[in-house]
Amino acid sequence: MNIYKHLIILIIFSLITLSCNNSNTKIRTELYIGLTDKNGNNIEDQWLRFKNDKLNNIIDGYTEIKGNGFWKNSKGVKFHEKTSILIYIHKKSVSENVKIDSIIELIKNDLHQESVLKIQFPIASEFK
What we know:
- This protein is α+β, with helices and mostly antiparallel strands.
- The protein has helices at residues 3-20, 44-58, 94-110, and strands at 25-34, 63-72, 78-90, 117-124.
- The protein is elongated, with a radius of gyration of 20 Å.
- It starts with a helix and ends with a strand.
């Protein structure tokens, strides 16, 4: 393949990449929080206090969905528990990732959680 064909391919690839880059692209982060502590105690009251005292001061808005979860901990013990799923839409940035990782550590420490599941994926969003 000669140099001109390489240049044409590079230009086409660049144009496709630029056309797919939407300035409205955001990141959707989901955090899955179990509402039972390591000893099996219900922590819904502590979760409510955590949201009011800490979470609402760290991020400007989120959606919370209540669910029922099932998982196996690091010792192999299986749990069924009430779960809160936080959905947070934000810009893709290092500072947002640090903020989210800080929230996860606070949840683990304050609510005595072994883990918090974090799922992230890009979305195209627009407020109308």
